[in-house]
Amino acid sequence: MSLQHHLIQASFDKAAKQYEQHAVLQKESLSRLLERLGDDLKTAPKQILDLGCGTGWAVPELLKLYPQSHVIAADFAQSMIDQVPQHPQVSARVSDAHAIDVHAQSCDLVFSNLMIQWCDESTVLQEIKRALKPGGHLHLTTMGEHTLHELKLAWQAIDDQPHVNEFVPAAKMADLTMQLGFADVIADSEFITMTYANVIDMMRDLKNIGAHNVDNNRPKGLTSPKVIKQLTKNFEEFRTADGLYPATYELVYLRARKTAEDKGLPLKIK
Ligand SMILES: C[S@@+](CC[C@H](N)C(=O)[O-])C[C@H]1O[C@@H](n2cnc3c(N)ncnc32)[C@H](O)[C@@H]1O
């Protein structure tokens, strides 16, 4: 993915104030991830890292699940971190997932909802592994390759520019995680469809949650009324029975464990 790091950071920084109001999909993904976590993790983690925590709305939920845990809430957008709920068991910090500001082998659980798709996945997974204690767990969600396929197809009929971010297939994420030496890797995905009254509302929503296209090769500038009209026409075949415009997300769940023997020696990955 050729995403521009500084643009993503600026975009989330700007989106922070209205983030919770618009992030319906993220909230849904978060509650599904928390549910799986509760089912999977049998012992309470002492230290949890919520990586790419956003405004920190997972934090109270994590403390509800694990009342004795300490939570490190990390995000690279200062205005997201400013909104993390304050609590004696929570430390919030501005930190980039590509070089996480935590001690090596200090976390029992790394939890991350819809962040890694904005990153270099391999670097971040290696950082997560460094942060985890031997035997520690990783639970995350990301976007799969079929995400926003309707919007992608509608744009393809207009030009061949990248209007929708490219996401890594679930199987490839699992392979990468295994190559990096994680054990018990499981990746699966499900589809969530959001519907909008029109294409403009859809694109505005993507922008409000900081999820619009930030590909290096993206076309710059505003979308003209003529193009919006064309896009709306191209969306016709996807409209729902009640006439709404769908945006389908492929939500990928990835879970893995750092082996008990893994003391964090660096791994060479091609
Ligand atoms: C879609 S939001 C999800 C926020 C939160 N996890 C939630 O469930 O609401 C993605 C978050 O990841 C953060 N993020 C993206 N790239 C990051 C990076 N390289 N390092 C740290 N945070 C990052 C963004 O600032 C944003 O807050």
TrEMBL record:
One of its GO terms (molecular function) is carboxyl-O-methyltransferase activity. Pfam families: Methyltransf_25 (PF13649). It catalyses: malonyl-[ACP] + S-adenosyl-L-methionine = malonyl-[ACP] methyl ester + S-adenosyl-L-homocysteine. Its EC number is 2.1.1.197. InterPro entries: BioC (IPR011814), Malonyl-ACP_OMT (IPR050602), Methyltransf_25 (IPR041698), SAM-dependent_MTases_sf (IPR029063). GO terms for biological process: biotin biosynthetic process; methylation. The keyword Lyase does not apply. Residues 48-136 form the Methyltransferase domain. Keywords: Biotin biosynthesis, Methyltransferase, S-adenosyl-L-methionine, Transferase. Transmembrane segments: none annotated. It is an enzyme of class 2 (transferase). Pathway: Cofactor biosynthesis; biotin biosynthesis. Belongs to the methyltransferase superfamily. Converts the free carboxyl group of a malonyl-thioester to its methyl ester by transfer of a methyl group from S-adenosyl-L-methionine (SAM). It allows to synthesize pimeloyl-ACP via the fatty acid synthetic pathway. This is Malonyl-[acyl-carrier protein] O-methyltransferase. The lineage of its organism: Bacteria, Pseudomonadati, Pseudomonadota, Gammaproteobacteria, Lysobacterales. The gene is bioC.
